[in-house]
Design a protein that fits this description.
Elements: E1 2-3, E2 8-9, H1 11-24, H2 26-46, E3 49-50, E4 60-61, E5 79-82, E6 91-95, H3 97-108, E7 116-120, E8 123-127, E9 130-131, E10 136-140, E11 144-148, E12 157-158, E13 174-175, E14 179-182, E15 185-191, E16 195-197, H4 201-208, E17 220-223, E18 226-231, E19 234-236, E20 243-246, E21 249-254, E22 257-259, E23 277-287, E24 293-295, H5 300-306, E25 310-321, E26 326-331, E27 338-358, E28 366-387, E29 405-419, E30 421-426, E31 433-445, E32 453-456, E33 458-467, E34 475-477, E35 483-485
Length: 499
Amino acid sequence: MVDTSGGRIHPHGQRRGVAAFVAANKTLLAAVWVVGFTLVFLWQSASISVGAGGGGRGFLRLRTASLPPTRPAPRLRPTAYNLTDFGGVGDGRAVNTEAFERAVEAIAALAERGGGQLNVPPGRWLTAPFNLTSHMTLFLAEGAEILGIPDEKYWPLMPALPSYGYGRERKGPRFGSLIHGQNLKDVVITGHNGSINGQGEVWWLKHRRRMLNNTRPPLVQLMWSKDIIVTNITLRDSPFWHLHPYDCTNVTVSNVTILSPVSGAPNTDGIDPDSCQDVLIENCYISVGDDAIAIKSGWDQYGIAYSRPSSNILIRNVTAHSLVSAGISIGSEMSGGVANVTVENVHIWESRRGVRIKTATGRGGYIRNISYRNITFDNVRAGIVIKVDYNEHADDGYDRNAFPDITNISFKEIHGWGVRVPVRAHGSDVIPIKDISFQDMSVGISYKKKHIFQCSYVEGRVIGSVFPKPCDNLDIYDEQGQLVKRAVTMNSTEVDYDI
């Protein structure tokens, strides 16, 4: 019935109309239902799709209502393969070393045609160490995890690094990394935040019990290579250092998460550029059992002889946590020299030290032109540490007269709270710290002793507002750069060693 006064359809009349329509069109409705059911069945069948793969090969992916669809891997090279194309099984039990090796061999054959991409699909892919090749992209899908076999018998031994002359922890050869490469060009490790897991717990335990005869392996190590990109992945639980570029040029590490226990996981540094040039580390989160980032360049007489510095390094937009060591370190192995380093926009929390420079007699080399800007310390025991008595040596053959040169170190916009000792910069009579500067610094302290800004054998300046009160070893300048007060002495002040 139509209500003409309001121009609306009356609800009782509407229900009667629907009933009449159904009674008159039962056959039509049954046909519509059958067609709809068929379409749903066909859609579900089509949802079993084939992932990207070279030559039309790929892995099957079943989409269900309870699981979101897997994001397809972008094709970043002319040819892309899936690990399953080479017999890979991602159940966490099957060993996939041969599958990785066959895939890398296939990609190596494509070098003249732009290289290739290896997609690691979702799953847990157990493997022994394997090598990468030039012009290769290793792509880890969301939910993909490469797992290192914890049994050391699967890990090959390699010669000591030439700039170390020593395995680093033990004399003689060292274990090779889980993912390795030498003399490569144009290598990309990326993904949808898939992960590489070294399963380092067994290694840490054996190290603490002194059960290993060789230095533990890094997780990812690329040597004598250039044009390296590591981005959008997670590295975790390395037996030793997580990411170790050695004597590489043009290295970018971006949007990488690195995780290991902050205690009980010894020497699990996050990123250690070693004798590298032109390095960018940005937008990373690192929480590990040693230095989050440590810039190195060789050890004692071996590093002096190798003579390959780390230089032109930019570290920015990083969050770091190191309960045992420091957020950002330089050294202690720096005998080839470290120069032209910028560290900016870094947040270091719940750590033993914030930023640290560490070296010793016998290192030789230099640390110069280092700039720290916009650094935040959040509950850090010692904010800024410069230490020249880090007396750990490869052997007794080091030169007792090889004194490192430390000059032109600047700290600007340094802030924080809950810091026990904001600055501890201690040179020595043979290794003075020269041309150091502090500007715009305000650090809330948790320590009430007198000398919480500690210096010895330091020459430099304070510019403008710096809190807490700086030590007497530094010249005082106002914001306009005018000298206000000369330093009283370069010699020692009271030192609190309990940091």
